[in-house]
Amino acid sequence: MDTPDRAAAAPSAAARAELMDGCQPEKLNDEILGCDWDDLISATSGELIAYDEDHKGVQLAVSNAESCGFLLSKLTGDGDISDRTHPSSSTQTYYRELLMDEDQTENAQLVPDGEKNISTEEIQDNLYEANGSIPTGYKVETQQQRGMRRRCLVFEAAGYSNRIVQKESVMDLSVSTCKGKSPVQNHSNPGKTPSPRVLRGIGLHLNALALTSKDKMVCQDPISSLVPSSATQQEAHGKMLSAGENFIHSGSELLELQMDDDCSAGVFLGNDHDSSQSNSPQKKRRKADNGDDGEACKRCSCKKSKCLKLYCECFAAGVYCSEPCSCQGCLNKPIHEEIVLSTRKQIEFRNPLAFAPKVIRMSDAGQDITGEDPNNTPASARHKRGCNCKKSSCLKKYCECYQGGVGCSSNCRCEGCKNTFGKRDAAVSTEAEEMKQGGEEAENCGKEKENDLQKANVQSEDQPFLELVPITPPFDVSSSLLKPPNFSSAKPPRPTKARSNSSRSSSKAPGAVHSQKFTKIANSGLNEEMPDILRDDASPGNCVKTSSPNGKRVSPPHNALSVSPSQKGGRKLILKSIPSFPSLIGDASSGSSMNSSESAFNTASPLALGPS
DNA sequence: GAGTTTGAAACT
DNA sequence: CAGTTTCAAACTC
Ligand SMILES: [Zn+2]
Ligand SMILES: [Zn+2]
Ligand SMILES: [Zn+2]
Ligand SMILES: [Zn+2]
Ligand SMILES: [Zn+2]
Ligand SMILES: [Zn+2]
After folding, report:
1. How do residues A313-345 score in pLDDT, each as one tens digit?
2. Residue A458 CA, ligand 4 centroid: distance in Å
3. What spans are recorded as compositionally biased (Low complexity) (predicted)?
4. Distance A441 CA to C6 C1' (A)
5. How far is residue A396 CA from its own chain's centroid?
């Protein structure tokens, strides 16, 4: 049961309502059902967080959880899930509270100050996390932009991802693996990798950590098997609590699964994203094929930065460190929220774009993503700042462009660039489009990379992966999403060992496919237009564009997904919201994400996430 | 798992 | 803004 009215009592109802607004639950259900949870989930496994300075800032929301919960509830029929498991936790409730009172929420959470001190960090962490999860600040308004946050999460993303997944990903993904741990994974298909597709616009954060959902995705089918393997649960609980306890509770098992990724950490950047998605029919995989499973999610392993510098992937991605992290002296925990936030501000002050997504894609316009044509390539995406590779030829993850699954641009200062994604000019302004076409080559020339193109075409095999970060613009930005090339764990091309050596030439079986892709790129693709939106400069405001073109789901998925790269984990998806990236949003006014967010949140605006 | 390589981030 | 140092990931073994 759900009782509709009471949030507390029947969170589900509430949630639904909200969801409905945003996501149109019904449809979703169908879609979802049709599709696969797995995919969705996996894709979604992100985390939402709302950030409020006043309150403290960080909150995690759980994107996944929500989504899961939400879905689950529907699936289950009633959505009792939440009820069943833990009353308190129900996601809905959570939201409700958020809506209702920010402050209260906090209190509710309780993170008692005293407790903080208490015991060891671990405890703290847990508590904190838990607390964190409960976000205070959030306000979700119902529909409207403000309410953006909904739980729709990543559906879209998932959707696109799904396909990919279906194809190959399954294998790959399943592999879990964390970092490079198992080479095996890679093996997967090098060839085939699905070409990377990108959705429309996108913001990627290289930083984003991905969740590693990995095989575990257990969540996958909530329906069929809610219960995850025991292990998962445990992990989930223990680790994940942070993000979602609340959520989790609701779906206890289910949610957990999601969470289990472990990676779920809270995000402090805040923002959420919503997304909606749907899609994907089939269920695919579930666990890992491999069997291994993994776990994988590793996150940072900082030794000296205390996870308060951009060196730390977690911090850079706007998330708190969590179990999977093996950092030392870590201060990037909810417990130390104040420190984290203040540090973040400082960094943003120095570089407003520091936490902005590093890779952004513009959609090409026309294409829709939904489709997901194979063709889509991330071609359009590009790294904002470009790389400065000297020795890697932009063929390894050392290169942020490659890591992000995007080609190098004129912004790059790389030497000997052989980026398999190609290189294009950065984009200048809108005009760039035209330029680009021709420009493409030009650039190459300019850069010196001529050959590259060819190679690229040929080679395309590799897949980088990218992490997406959704930007959640204040209003909707569905437009900008990026699809990762491979979604999930893409495995990077494993050059050496991996499959064949010839990675380039030989194995690339998929070459064909890629070729198409490239072709596109080369021909027209390259030129992507870059909407200003993404651009740093570009004012985000503009960007926001309307909804997603895609048609499918309107809802604005603002979230971001990040896929983790190959090696790392299978994939981690995180939804991260970006506070406000200056770049994206409007930087200036909004200022740093933090700031803007704060002010916004606190005072007025409801946009919570949205940047204002 | 230790050790090396790499390029971004941070610092000067 | 360039040069150097610091840093942790990516990669290698
Ligand atoms: Zn760290
Ligand atoms: Zn960490
Ligand atoms: Zn840490
Ligand atoms: Zn590069
Ligand atoms: Zn580059
Ligand atoms: Zn390059």
Report:
1. 999 999 999 988 999 999 999 999 999 999 999
2. 18
3. 589-599
4. 37
5. 21
Using a CB cutoff of 5 Å, list residues around ligand 6, an ion: A 394, 408, 412, 414, 417, 419
| Domain range annotation of chain A | 297-356, 375-424
In this structure, is the CB of residue A567 within 7 Å of any atom belonging to strand C? Answer: yes
Phi, psi of A275 (to 5 degrees): -160, 160
Per the listing, tokens 């609980």 go with: A237
- Is any atom of nucleic acid chain C found less than 7 Å from the CB of residue A305? yes
**Which ligand is nearest the CA of A386, by number?**
5
How many angstroms separate the most distant Cα atoms in chain A? 65
CA A607 to chain centre: 20
Per residue in A499-541, pLDDT tens? 333 333 333 333 333 444 444 444 433 444 444 434 444 444 3
Phi, psi values for residue A517, rounded to 5°: -50, -50
Tell whether ipTM is more than 0.85. yes
Identify any residues that bridge with A423 across adjacent strands, giving them in sequence order: A408
Q: What's the predicted TM-score (pTM) here?
A: 0.50
**pLDDT value of residue A363:** 52
- Rounded to whole angstroms, the Cα distance separating A421 from A417 reads 10
Residue A40 corresponds to which amino acid? L
How far, in Å, from the CA of A326 to the mean position of ligand 2?
Answer: 7
Closest CA to A173 of A157, A159, A189: A189
Where helices occur in A306-399 by DSSP H, the ranges are 313-317, 337-350
